[in-house]
Specification:
alpha/beta; Rossmann fold; six-stranded parallel β-sheet; three-stranded antiparallel β-sheet; binds flavin mononucleotide
Length: 251
């Protein structure tokens, strides 16, 4: 069994950590689907963690437009409510699948100051390592926080036994280590989002939480290019953890 981080013992789990697993391809019969199920099941063993697999296909994103204007309420809502993300993706021609980038581009503020863990998959020996390297600058650009560890599953065609368990113990240990780092980062960044303002705040900037009325902390400012360079200010409630994005003018 995966060693647990005991976030609760350290007083860090007043509510569960939501870490969805985003599957990076819509290819029929994709072998990375089995990897995503394995990752989600190991993650779900953690006592203070809630997870679910997000299937790109279920988002029904239009193919005739790009960016936040084609956002899926379901996807954006899940990312907004999350404390981090794991992406399980195959390597296609040394890069990431176009369908993954298409979906990632539909959110912005929802990602800011949340950690992301990566699991690469390939039939070749490198396990999607080139996909991971190519994806890193994209993830940073949308506001996600990178962590040091990742997992590569090479030779995926023979990687699982009949029960859907990975046969290579080293990959199990690598996932174990990546999950521990991700949860530490998720706990640390959630505390930061809720308690630490990113700049000096003026009284006029303070807005009340929609759910409980508590004054919220401002923890990110994002330029929304689609809205003509407007600023979106992201606030987090220090009491109930709710997030809200507020549009303003150019700062
Ligand atoms: C369009 C395409 C490009 C691919 N390019 C690579 C590649 O660059 N390197 C690699 O190791 N495997 C590559 N593969 C094979 C995948 O590693 C293989 O399909 C594996 O099962 C993981 O992807 P899947 O989740 O789509 O099954 C490619 C597969 C497709 C469909």
């Amino acid at each position: 069994m995966l060693r647990t981080l005991q976030l609760e013992r350290h007083g860090m789990a007043d509510r569960p950590y939501r870490i969805p697993v985003l599957r990076g391809t819509v290819r029929k019969g994709a072998r990375s689907a089995g990897v995503a199920r394995w990752v989600a099941s190991r993650l779900a063993e953690q006592p203070d963690v809630e997870t679910r697999i997000i299937e790109l296909e279920s988002l029904s994103l239009p193919a005739n437009n790009e960016g936040t204007s084609i956002r899926s309420q379901a996807f954006s809502g899940l990312v907004d409510q999350s404390d981090g993300l794991i992406i399980v993706s195959p390597e296609y021609n040394h890069g990431y699948p176009a369908s993954l980038k298409h979906a990632l581009d539909t959110n912005y503020t929802e990602y800011v100051h949340k950690p992301v863990g990566l699991v690469g998959v390939s039939t070749g020996a490198l396990g999607g390592a080139r996909m991971i390297e190519n994806l890193l600058p994209v993830l940073r650009a949308v506001g996600l926080v990178l962590i040091q560890r990742d997992v590569t599953i090479g030779n995926v065609a023979g990687a699982f036994d009949d029960e859907g368990q990975l046969t290579d113990e080293r990959s199990v240990h690598r996932l174990d280590g990546m999950v521990r780092e991700l949860l530490w980062m998720a706990a640390t960044l959630r505390r930061g989002r809720e308690a630490v303002p990113t700049r000096l705040e003026f009284a006029a900037d303070t807005i009340a939480c929609r759910d409980c009325g508590t004054p919220m902390n401002h923890h990110a400012t994002v330029i929304d290019e689609e809205a003509g360079g407007f600023i979106a200010r992201v606030h987090a409630c220090p009491v109930c953890g709710g997030n809200t994005a507020e549009r303003g003018g150019i700062e």
